[in-house]
Amino acid sequence: MLHDIQQLTVTAKTKVYGYRPRLPEDVRYIFSNKSEIVRSLKTKSLAVALVEVDRLNKWFDERVATVGYSRNVSARLPAKMLRDIYEDMKLAGDHPDIVPVLNAQSDLEDVARFVRDFGEIAIMRMALNRGEVTPADYFGETRAYEDTNVGKLVQFQMNRDHLRLWLHEKYMVQSGYKGELLNSELDCDAEDYFPPQLKCDESDPEVIRYRIMMGENLVPSPTWQNATDS
Asked: What is the pLDDT of residues 94-109, one digit of tens each?
């Protein structure tokens, strides 16, 4: 199991048990990049809570397994496929290597400009979330930042999120999802809900793109560019 068994919490005031596992960094992409899952078990009974934790632990392991996650990639991906995907992502602006970042070498003026632009976009985003502006108005306003470092970063994150949602739909087990919608014990509207998935095809170019966008290095060796495709 990727998690510890000791993930049972209890609130000091209400004594209601909860489930709160911390997520290893290399599986967070499966759970909307969250560092932990926080879920109330809605019970004050330890016996009931332990049964529920066992069920949720199995749910967690199933979710990790069914999306095809493995710390050791089972097979080397064809070098030509990787080269083509890498080049296409760079041309499209979706490769992490070309997304603007701040680091110790950044000019202070660039840092100040980044912080200013980020703050302005964040304010607009909060207004959108509160329903104070329409999505059309929001995206119209953010177009002014398209060529800025923050704008490029925001666009990259949006493209990555859209690809993640598409992969969830692409690999969803439709019959299993319909069954879970009828299960009163599951909250399918919860942010951390993850629908039943088929095992991802590691050679699927869209799966490869998403893994690269999440920062995975899929280059097998320094000589990969000279490797012969199988």
From this structure: 888 888 878 788 889 9
Of 94, 7, 99, nearest to 55 by C-alpha is: 7
In a domain, 34, yes or no: no
* 174 phi, psi to nearest 5 deg: -60, -45
Q: How many domains does the chain have?
A: 1
Amino acid at 218: L
Q: Is residue 107 part of a domain?
A: yes
Locus of tokens 């290095």: 217
**Residue 29: both structure tokens together:** 């992409």
pLDDT band at residue 123 under the 50/70/90 scheme: very high
58, 91, 156 from 3: Cα distances, Å: 10, 38, 30
Tell me what percent of the residues of the chain surpass a pLDDT of 70: 85
**In whole angstroms, what is the distance from residue 158 CA to residue 125 CA?**
13
DSSP 10: E
17-19: strand order across its sheet: 8-10, 17-19, 39-40
Domain that holds residue 222: 67-226
CA distance 173 to 199: 10
Written as one string, the DSSP assignment of 90-145 is HHHT--GGGS----TT--HHHHHHHHHHHHHHHHHHHHHHTTSS-HHHHHHHHGGG
Residues 107 and 152: their CA atoms lie apart, in Å, by 18
98 inside domain: yes
Among the listed residues 139, 117, 118, 112, the one whose alpha carbon sits nearest the alpha carbon of residue 128 = 139
pTM comes to 0.60
**Beta strand 8-10 pairing with 39-40:** unpaired
